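Hi F.,

I've been meaning to write this up properly since the lab meeting, where we talked about keeping a consistent format for the predictions we share between groups. The idea is simple: the sequence comes first, exactly as it goes in, then the structure tokens exactly as they come out, then a line or two of notes. No screenshots and no reformatting. I'm using this chain as the first example so we have something concrete to point to.
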Amino acid sequence: MKITIDNHSSYVYRGKADSHVEVSKALPNILFIHGAQQDHSCWALQSRWFAHHGYNVFVPDLPGHGMSAGDPLESIEELAKWIKKLIDQLDLKDVTLVGHSMGSLIALEFTLQNTSKVAKLILIGSALPMPVSDVLLDAAQNNEPKAISMVNNFSHSSQAQIGRNTVPGMWMMGVNQRLMERQKKGVFFNDLTACNNYKVDSNMLSDLSDQSLTVLVMSGSEDKMTSPKSARKLSEQILGSRLTLINGAGHALMAEAPNEVLDCLIGFTK
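Output, unedited:
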């Protein structure tokens, strides 16, 4: 499905082959937000399951990513406002928001500013703050292939480095590398800078505990990008949130442990 936001064409995957599948007012809504240098395809298994099991599914390519036109937005706050425009245009209520890495920050910021629109919040591979090293930022700006290689290695567990793909014959690290390589030049540095610059007052996180929404924080036990320790700290700051650790998975846990991640999402959204 393509819609126009801020005079630019934006692509929204619906989880089914028919991209124009009807939005039903009678069905619950779930929206997936991808991370830095990614697009909708990183949610392939999870989005398809929900689309075929009674949900309105929305998986946008963020501006300047994948098949969405325009320049990438420079801050998490701007990206959260873009998500609001998307949700408002589609007239969605009580949305379950699922975000990975940079997408988790976008989902969190949107929720902090629009709590009444969110039913459930799921933060995967998240940390707050989410600092990015100077070495990686420099590589993303001046030597993007090097940055892609660095992040691709850091994002996967030791088992993923030697195989582990649940689809026989598929090379997990190669698939992720090609996904990152197909994004437009300059997107990576933009995304990493947005993550590095994002800050939230801890009191705002505490305020989420007083709202009616429920929160899940999910982390891979071998995540080298946003560590399980950081995920636990984030969960502790959001009182009443649930923390789930996916054993043996790294930062790219939707690809490394797709069934485990899906099972957690299904259990939490029931």
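Notes:
The chain has one domain: 2-269.
The CA atoms of residues 10 and 55 lie 21 Å apart.

If this format works for you, I'll send the rest the same way.

G.
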